[in-house]
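Chapter summary example: a protein plus S-adenosylmethionine.
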Amino acid sequence: MDHWITIDSSSIPGSDIELTLSQRADDFAIRISGVPGDLMNSRMHHSEEELAKFACSRLSIVENAQVLVGGLGMGFTLAAVLKTVGVSARVVVAELVPAVVEWNHGLLGQCAGRPVEDKRTRVHLGDVADLLKQQPGKFDAILLDVDNGPEAMTHSDNEWLYSLAGLKSMYKKLRPEGIVAIWSARANPIFTSRLKKTGFNVQERTVRARPGKGSRHTIFVAQKKLSI
Ligand SMILES: C[S@@+](CC[C@H](N)C(=O)[O-])C[C@H]1O[C@@H](n2cnc3c(N)ncnc32)[C@H](O)[C@@H]1O
């Protein structure tokens, strides 16, 4: 197979935009209709895995660590979280598009080793914002990779996630010293300032799309201050 074939497509809830899953030989791509490029491609997942390491490395020795992952995609970030945290951890992955979860239970699941089937994983079918706004409970880490960076792309409502209101909501949902990590295709000084204004200690990490090569992506690592 030397050309891309569309395997399935599904509308994004609350919009008339479609998400498609395409395959070329062993490679997969998830694309948004009308938007050039890939939302996610199975050949490049290093920065998606680094997102998990920056957010969760300190959690390997924490009992009952609670992690929220926004956006399942191809499951690389979720798989990297599961590799990092301990056996007693609980990892909630929120996915807006039900078909993405179905794809991960099927052929697409082989890309990242079927992390949705790990017994520590709980899938929330719906908007990650719902968990940040409504549900009780606190997280040790919140990871977001739902767009191409801190601007809504998949879904216009995602703008809230990157607003001061959204960031304050994440701050409240974190335990002391908890971390929010956000994947971005590029740096964004205005967003960095907004994270600082929320009260986070912020680091911007630059990571390549593949180990040692490829595009440079930015991961915003924002840590809640220790309450005294
Ligand atoms: C770039 S992909 C995630 C890639 C993922 N990090 C990986 O390792 O494969 C973005 C995913 O976020 C989902 N998504 C977009 N907005 C969302 C939201 N508000 N809540 C939950 N999932 C969302 C999309 O449907 C898509 O599956």
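Key point: The radius of gyration is 17 Å.
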